[in-house]
Structure formats: structure tokens, C-alpha cells
Amino acid sequence: MSARKRISAEKRKEARKEVSLAILKNVPTSPRKMRYVVDLVRGMEVFKALGVLKFSNKDAALKVEKLLLSAISNWEQKNERKAETGELYIKTISVDGGSMLKRLRPAPQGRGHRIRKRSNHVTLVVDTLNSEKNN
């Protein structure tokens, strides 16, 4: 590894140490359905977002709620203290398409139609409001 690449890799590594994130992979729902739920809570304060997800009737909301609790727990463990109300917010949350299972469904006259069973990956980053004001 060259010196320039090593320096930039160390910078990325240091920046990642300050960020608390949680990643959920291979969720067996389509990315579009997951994005509906994710758009509800993007940029919101963490405990308010938990309330929104708790009372959402979408199936994907349960998975995002569990992921958000994991991200909060990661932040608490990294900072060695409990999260307080109004302190944390969802900095970024993104949904990417995962692997796709391709199946065939029987169709008339001996043909087959392709069925794509989609999955997705969700990445959630939690940050404090104070650190955003300092920058």
C-alpha cells in the first residue's frame, strides 16, 4: 500500500470511529417497501422516530425499529453513557438493493413468467446534535 493510500485509509478509519452505525443485511422485502418506512424517520430525533415506527402498520417498520435500537445501543457502548432524550438523531439512513432470488411461475400455454424475490440492505448512522453544531 502506498503512503498516500495509507494516510487516506487511516483518515477514513478515524472518522468511522466517531460514528455509531448499525447495518441490517438481506431483509426479505423489496427495497421500495423499505424506503417508504425509512423516509418517515430520516433526520428525526431518535426517540421520536421510535414512536413513529412503533405505531406504523408496515411490516418493515418492525425491522427498522430493531435496527434503530441496535444503533442506539452501539452509540451508548461507544460513548460509555446512556442516551438522553433530544440528544441523538438519525444522521443518515439508506436502503440498498440486496440479492434477488429468481423463480419461475407457471403461465398459460406452457410458458413461465419470472418472479423476482427482492431483498435489501439498510444502513443507519446515529449522531449527536451537539457534534453537528460544533462543525
Which descriptors would you attach to this protein?
alpha+beta, 135 residues, three-stranded antiparallel β-sheet, single chain
Briefly note the structural class of the backbone: alpha+beta
- Arithmetic mean pLDDT: 91
Proportion of residues in helical segments: 40-55%
Radius of gyration: 19 Å
Q: What series of H and E elements makes up the topology?
A: HEHHHEEH
State the assembly state of the protein chains. single chain
Overall 3D geometry? flat
Biggest beta sheet attributes: 3 strands, antiparallel
**Sheet with most strands: strand arrangement:** 1-3-2
How far do the termini sit from each other?
A: 31 Å
Q: Total helix count?
A: 5
User: Low-confidence runs (pLDDT<50, min 5 residues)?
Assistant: none
Q: Percent of residues in beta strands?
A: 25-35%
What is the count of β-strands? 3
